[in-house]
Design goal:
By secondary structure, the chain is an alpha+beta fold. The protein is 20% helix and 21% strand. Among the domains are: 78-136, no CATH class; 147-283, OB fold (Dihydrolipoamide Acetyltransferase, E2P). The chain has helices at 3-17, 109-114, 185-196, 230-236, 252-265, 279-283, and strands spanning 32-34, 37-39, 44-46, 53-55, 78-81, 86-89, 103-106, 118-119, 135-136, 145-146, 151-158, 161-164, 169-172, 175-176, 202-206, 218-223, 241-242. The strands form 6 sheets. Strands 11-12-13-16-15 form a 5-stranded mixed barrel. Strands 7-5-6-8 form a 4-stranded mixed β-sheet. A hairpin with a 2-residue loop joins strand 1 (32-34) and strand 2 (37-39). Helix 4 (230-236) packs parallel to helix 5. The relative contact order is 0.08.
Length: 290
């Protein structure tokens, strides 16, 4: 190689160093360069940490779709799916899992219910009257009531149900007490709840996931001023048993422990054999003597 040709080659090689993407590129007699190797011309070059990889265009990994988050239109308070049966308050996050293409927006509760939808039973999703808090459906012509507002006890219905002065009927979660028709056990359970939450007393209300049962009763845990949970205390006294209906299972383990301790010590109705026929079995008529 003469001096002139060598000088020209050196200038060309140095120039390559300043061309983006070509520094260190492989010179290929056949195929095309790909990082520090050569690949066939009909292959796709993909260079990552380490050695270059070659693959066909169809083998390139697909990008995950970018999730579409629907914006709430101005004035919309409630949303539902054209393929569903329930509606959600826009302040609840659960509606965001619905397909954006199926969303229907409503400005009022009257409008969405006139369209045939019923409120979501998920905590916080039924929607408030004033865009805050959780509400329970109210009788026609009345305003919705904040589900977690403190309850002033009006009357005790039975061993696991009571009425609040504001009209809410609360069914205590995760427990089942003897029915009024299971005498004398039903009367004992009712008296125990009356002692814990007498008429006129105030108790805090704690909800779980599902807000109401099929009878439109608010499902809740009640707390006394000293922090004790009324539901749990009835189990400790031995006047109720654990009854689990998912998804409301927040305190289920501690409640089971309380019930097992009461049974082991023969507390309350356990010593009288009251639960040889569980309340659920009694209601289903499974304990009737032929």
């Amino acid at each position: 190689m003469n001096v002139r040709r060598f000088a020209w080659f050196a200038v060309f090689a140095v120039g390559l160093l300043f061309v983006p993407g070509l520094a260190g590129a492989q010179v290929c007699n056949r195929g095309k360069p790909c990082g520090n190797t050569c690949i066939a011309r009909d292959r796709t070059c993909r260079v990552g940490p380490g050695t270059a990889r070659a693959g066909s265009p169809s083998s390139a990994p697909a990008r995950p779709p970018t999730p579409t988050v629907a914006a709430v239109p101005a004035g919309a308070q409630f949303v539902a799916s054209s393929r569903g049966r329930v509606y959600y308050w826009t302040g609840c996050s659960q509606w965001r899992s619905l397909s954006a293409a199926n969303l229907r927006w409503f400005s009022s509760r009257a409008e969405v219910e006139a369209a045939g939808y019923t409120p979501s039973q998920s905590a916080g999703c039924a929607g408030p009257a004033d865009a805050g808090g959780v509400v329970t459906p109210s009788p026609a012509g009345t305003e919705p009531v904040d589900a977690e507002a403190p309850c002033t006890v009006a009357t005790v219905v039975d061993g696991d149900t009571l009425d609040c002065a504001d009209g809410r009927r609360i069914r205590l979660l995760l427990i089942d007490a003897p029915e009024a028709s299971q005498q004398p056990f039903g009367a004992v359970a009712k008296a125990a709840l009356e002692r814990l939450a007498p008429a006129g007393s105030n108790v805090a209300v704690e909800i779980d996931v599902q807000l109401q049962d099929q009878y439109q009763r608010l499902l809740a845990y009640l707390r006394l001023e000293d922090g004790r949970i009324v539901n749990e205390e009835l189990l400790r006294l031995g006047v109720a048993v654990v009854s689990v209906y998912p998804p409301n299972v927040r305190h289920v383990e501690r409640f089971r422990t309380a019930s097992e301790e009461a049974q082991a010590t023969g507390a309350g109705l356990w010593s009288l054999g009251a639960f040889e026929c569980l309340p659920a079995d009694h209601r289903a008529g499974r304990c009737e003597v032929p």
